[in-house]
């Protein structure tokens, strides 16, 4: 039974008091037995937290009491077990790292597109559809016609734009990402460097999967999420992927049936690259996990 609420939230808003906000926010989450990670920076807030219905509601109510957070970009899904180990509130330079200091979300950003209108936009042959997520995320699911920039981190996206895109040639750009935050920031960057029409999916893939029925969906595959669930699919139901402990790559059922897959030790994506010492260390960790499970406990590394 799914009784854990998983809440993903963000907002680009000027925060001059992030240091003062950190501890009260952490204490509010801990008091309500919430786990997950929230990032605070001068450009806003971002993160995913999980807990009971009552606990999540109390944290969101606490945030909403501050007028700067009253209209967070917010979405919920569910999990049958807690997908996080602990609660962290971290101070960062950016709530999502693009590494381009000239980008100001309060100055200019692309046009939001609601999930209900997204299909019409990306069906337009004049629109270049770009998935701004990392390569391993795109590998397990993306929108039809979406280009994979083949980045390993979001900070590589500006280089992709500079080397592969041309404002004179690519007149209309539509971008998507997991929850909307990366494509929102990417849209501001692209407008800054001269692109004219830039659109981004409001609420990201998660909001699209929540609202658009499978019979109408242009999404192919599953959507990677940064917690113990690994991936979700239409209706935000739990997906079929898991995560390799050794290399953190998402694993399909086919990957897990490979002779190179051994739970907690290796998978087809890393089997040939692991050193003897790494395999020895992972094997010891897996032994400890099995012993903890036999005692009815949960090993913190699982």
UniProtKB/TrEMBL annotation:
Keyword tRNA processing: yes
Family to which this protein belongs: Belongs to the TrhO family.
Keywords recorded for this protein, A-Z: Oxidoreductase, Transferase, tRNA processing
Keyword Manganese: no
Rhodanese domain mapped to chain residues: 123-217
A GO biological-process term: tRNA modification
Function recorded in the entry: Catalyzes oxygen-dependent 5-hydroxyuridine (ho5U) modification at position 34 in tRNAs.
PROSITE patterns: RHODANESE_3 (PS50206)
Name this polypeptide is given: tRNA uridine(34) hydroxylase
The reaction(s) this protein catalyses: uridine(34) in tRNA + AH2 + O2 = 5-hydroxyuridine(34) in tRNA + A + H2O
E.C. number: 1.14.-.-
Annotated SMART domains: RHOD (SM00450)
NCBIfam families linked: PRK00142.1-4
Gene Ontology molecular-function annotations: oxidoreductase activity, acting on paired donors, with incorporation or reduction of molecular oxygen; transferase activity
InterPro entries assigned to the protein according to its UniProt record, in alphabetical order: Rhodanese-like_dom, Rhodanese-like_dom_sf, TrhO, TRHO_N
Organism annotation: Caedimonas varicaedens
């Amino acid at each position: 039974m799914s009784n854990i609420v998983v809440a993903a939230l963000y907002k680009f808003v000027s925060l001059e008091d992030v240091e003062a906000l950190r501890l009260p926010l952490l204490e509010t989450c801990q008091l309500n037995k919430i786990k997950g990670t929230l990032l605070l920076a001068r450009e806003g807030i971002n993160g995913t937290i999980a807990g009971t219905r009552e606990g999540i509601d109390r944290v969101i109510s606490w945030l909403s009491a501050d007028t700067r957070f009253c209209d967070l970009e917010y979405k919920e899904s569910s999990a049958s077990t807690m997908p996080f180990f602990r609660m962290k509130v971290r101070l960062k330079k950016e709530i999502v790292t693009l590494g381009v200091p000239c980008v100001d979300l309060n100055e200019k950003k692309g046009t939001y597109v609601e999930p209900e209108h997204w299909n019409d936009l990306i069906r337009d042959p004049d629109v270049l559809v770009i998935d701004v997520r990392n390569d391993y995320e795109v590998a397990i699911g993306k929108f039809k016609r979406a280009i994979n920039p083949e980045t390993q981190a979001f900070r590589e996206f500006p280089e992709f734009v500079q080397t592969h895109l041309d404002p004179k040639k690519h007149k209309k750009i539509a971008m998507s990402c997991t929850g909307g935050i990366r494509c929102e920031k990417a849209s501001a960057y692209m407008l800054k460097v001269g692109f004219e029409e830039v659109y981004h999916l409001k609420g990201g893939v998660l909001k699209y999967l929540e609202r658009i029925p499978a019979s109408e969906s242009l999404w192919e595959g599953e959507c990677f999420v940064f917690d113990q669930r690994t991936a979700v699919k239409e209706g935000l139901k739990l997906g079929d992927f898991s995560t390799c402990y050794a290399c953190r790559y998402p694993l399909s059922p086919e990957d897990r049936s490979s002779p190179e897959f051994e739970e907690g030790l290796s998978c087809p994506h890393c089997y040939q690259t692991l050193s003897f010492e790494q395999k020895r260390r992972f094997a010891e960790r897996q032994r400890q996990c099995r012993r903890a499970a036999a005692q009815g406990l949960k090993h913190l590394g699982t």
